[in-house]
Amino acid sequence: MKAVARIPRTGLPPPLASSFPLQKSYNPVFVHILLLSDIHSNLEALDACLAAAPAHDLVVNLGDTVGYGANPNEVIARAQALGRIFVRGNHDRAVTGLMDLDDFNPAAGLATLWTRDQLTPANLDWLRSLPQGPIHLDELPGIQFVHGSALDEDEYIVSAHDAIAPLIANPVPVTFFGHTHLQGGFMLQGKIDEAYRPVYRTVGQSESSDWPLRKDKDCRYLINPGSVGQPRDGDWRAAFAMFDSEAWIVTFYRVPYNLRLAQEKILVANLPRRLATRLATGR
Ligand SMILES: [Fe+2]
Question: 228 alpha carbon to ligand 1 midpoint, in Å?
Answer without folding.
Answer: 10
